[in-house]
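Help needed: design a sequence for this.
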């Protein structure tokens, strides 16, 4: 299906809500990268708030639409090796860590922290390349990373081409961690599942 962006304002205004949601779904299925609500709103001649509501209804109807910092995306079915790795670093180490992951051919699906009050908190990332990482870092300027809530300790869910790529990545992360951090045990909250990883990060989960 080819999405027609050449609709006139009159044609767009006559579109029903159901037709609009169908077009949003088709657009996201065809997209090779996330699409923001602002872009969808401009293409469909409605407000951003209407798009947000439409996407919420599509998700409630069972469509696997993920909201990332770059926009909406429908994740492709993964045929790789899905793993989680626990890491610890300050904000300055974020770019190097993410670049190492995509350089090894892995997709960074999300970031997860275990908060002492709220429990598990996660945010979708879907980073595939250094360009994705750079765009993510630009959006992060002036904002605190999620891992700041847990003294830098966090998990990443990864989709890697195979086990060899995953092993190469964990080796690379240990190199990035450096001698100083390896000698510093992670300070984790009692009773939380990352506590067992203290002092041995990065660690495959």
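Sure. Designed sequence:
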């Amino acid at each position: 299906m080819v999405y027609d962006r050449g609709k006139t304002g009159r044609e767009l205004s006559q579109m029903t809500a159901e037709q609009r949601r169908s077009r949003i779904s088709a657009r996201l299925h065809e997209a090779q990268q996330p699409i923001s609500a602002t872009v969808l709103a401009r293409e469909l001649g409605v407000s951003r708030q209407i798009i947000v509501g439409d996407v919420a209804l599509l998700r409630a109807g069972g469509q696997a639409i993920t909201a990332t910092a770059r926009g909406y995306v429908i994740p492709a079915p993964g045929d790789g090796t899905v793993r989680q790795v626990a890491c610890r670093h300050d904000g300055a180490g974020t770019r190097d860590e993410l670049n190492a992951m995509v350089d090894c051919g892995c997709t960074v699906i999300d970031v997860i922290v275990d908060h002492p009050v709220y429990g598990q908190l996660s945010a979708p990332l879907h980073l595939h390349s250094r360009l994705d990482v750079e765009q993510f870092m630009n959006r992060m300027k002036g904002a605190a990373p999620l891992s700041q809530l847990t003294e830098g300790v966090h998990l990443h869910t990864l989709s890697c081409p195979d086990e060899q790529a995953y092993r190469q990545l964990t080796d690379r992360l240990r190199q990035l961690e450096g001698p100083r951090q390896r000698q510093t045990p992670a300070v984790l909250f009692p009773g939380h599942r990352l506590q067992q990883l203290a002092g041995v990060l990065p660690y495959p989960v």
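DSSP finds seven helices and seven strands in the chain.
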